[in-house]
Amino acid sequence: MTDTTQLPVRPQNVAELEALIGQTIGPTEWHDVTQESVNAFADVTGDHQWIHVDPERAAQSPLGTTIAHGLYSLSLGPAFSYSLISFEAFTHSLNYGYEKVRFPAPLPIGSRVRMTTEVVAVVHVPGGVQVRARQVFEREGSDKPVAVAESLGRLVEDAS
């Protein structure tokens, strides 16, 4: 695991990025999951399913409480990623998408979540490289991750 005192990791070029393949970077700092933030996410997405926004009804469910949306967990990925790895040495970087997204366990309100990332592959594509990174979101006190996803990013190396 990468030493968290040296985060974010700052590859300066494609060769340094390729050297990160197979390394786990992180974890991030813990993020508090509050009912207010989940309600705000529900408002933005229009997903007001009761298990996310109705604490009284959710208390009667097998989970015993409201839980964050799976996509809420995934949406933390970009901010978490910025705290783990910096692409500022590259001319341009962008989110290209996700593959293999899974939500193996619920994320109850009042929990804390954090993320690690692993650079899985760096593939040369026209105009730059595509980075595949495995993101694992863990809930404090749980052995099972709340989300696991492979993110895809595109980077253009500075030609100067």
UniProtKB/TrEMBL annotation:
Signal sequence bounds: none
Gene3D superfamilies given in the database record: Hotdog Thioesterase
Coiled-coil residue windows: none
Matches recorded under InterPro entries: HotDog_dom_sf, MaoC-like_dom, NodN-like
UniProt-listed CDD domains: NodN
Family: Belongs to the enoyl-CoA hydratase/isomerase family.
Domain MaoC-like, residue spans: 19-131
Superkingdom of origin: Bacteria
Protein name: MaoC family dehydratase
